[in-house]
Sequence to fold (267 residues):
Amino acid sequence: MRSPLSSQTATNPSAQGCRLAAGLEIAGVIPASHLERPAAPIVSCGIAELDALTGGLPRGALTEICGLPSSGRSSLMLAALAEATRRQEICALVDTTDSFDPLSAAGAGVDLDRVLWIRLRSARLRALEQALKVTDLLLQGSGFGLVAIDLADMPAELTRRIPLASWFRFRRAVEHTSTVLLVIEQEPHAKTCASLVLETTAASTPTLRPTAAQPAPSHAQLLRGIDVRVEVVCARMDSPKKPAGRVEWRVASCELLVASCELRVTR
Fold:
């Protein structure tokens, strides 16, 4: 036989809700919306001006660097690789178009002995599929300080085909780890899966000067550097510093001889 109190509670939902709330308060239960998540560890990207803007690259998260060709996106990736190897970390580079130049990387300060270079030489659609599988294996295996996926020279119409489920899988695989997941591309694709999105553009025309090299034609010029602008497109980082705004710096890792349609590295 049901007691009057239980009958009253069953017929009075508000009273039942009050008792439940009181019980939760007594038990010390905190709603999930009120929980504070610890800030993600931040590491330097190797460029002081950019670190001052963003605070650095978040570990356990996905960062996208997008931009057109000759906008400084690859230089930013090399700076991040150099800084990671300087911290004695092992890095992995998924090179979807076999465009990575070890000599340029070494000149930028990358310790090649600490970089796992995955060269994909298949047709572009096939290489993209292989890149997604390889990245999944790298993140599941863990142990890397930085994993970079170079999609910069991959046509945008192909990278748009990457399912959103793949980006969600990468985000889930990298979170709660110390790995920095870096993606270089022409335009952002990871949407809400990316914790930080940076856009690079050329802030000015390349700096040229005449050359006095004897083998060079008289009309040849040296490419001394290029001014690069980086803008924070989106930041979903649980850190005290909220990235915003833009910053500029000069890329001048080498000199290139510009004559007709020929580029030659000068020593």
